[in-house]
Specification:
It contains two helices and eight strands. By secondary structure, the protein is α+β, with helices and mostly antiparallel strands. It folds into two domains: 3-85, F0F1 ATP synthase delta/epsilon subunit, N-terminal (ATP Synthase, domain 1); 87-124, Single alpha-helices involved in coiled-coils or other helix-helix interfaces (Up-down Bundle), CATH 1.20.5. The protein starts with a strand and ends in a 14-residue tail after the last helix. The mean pLDDT is 92. Bound molecules: adenosine-5'-triphosphate. The site of adenosine-5'-triphosphate has 12 residues, from helix 1 and helix 2.
Length: 148
Amino acid sequence: MPFRLEIVTAERQVYADDVDMVLAPGADGQLGILPRHAPLFTLLTAGPLVIRKGGQETAIALSGGFMEVLHNRVTVMADAAEHAEEIDEARALAAVERARERIQHRTADMDLERAQADMRRAVARLAVMERRRRRPVDRGARPGGGPS
Ligand code: ATP
């Protein structure tokens, strides 16, 4: 029995479909969501969000946000979210390099935390691309259901 998953940012709807399972990057660890999950409202961190649907897995890069589970419907409100094919690899690699530099040359704890958060977002994007490379048949469902 599938359930509804919607991923939105302030700008757009990134994903909307019926799915079998969601693995989300919870602030306190991975959260596995199956049908009929108890109501939940929780903070997400940057990481890949994995969707299982009809025996196929799709990953979306999330930059943190919130997740609500209610009435067999999961809503993810993300700071930013990208399908694998939307990710600019060179940009993510540059972000990792920039964050690495700033972690090495930090002058305050705040700088360290920000650089680590930047690093997590970039690493999440690279992980989603890497997954896609290993599973080239993956196709993310998009609003409207048209081809990507
Ligand atoms: P950068 O340091 O490269 O700007 P960032 O992690 O600071 O990246 P965000 O603030 O998370 O970027 O996102 C800003 C916007 O840019 C969002 O719309 C996000 O989807 C998009 N974005 C960020 N990095 C990438 C990327 N590597 N590929 C595609 N879109 C990206």
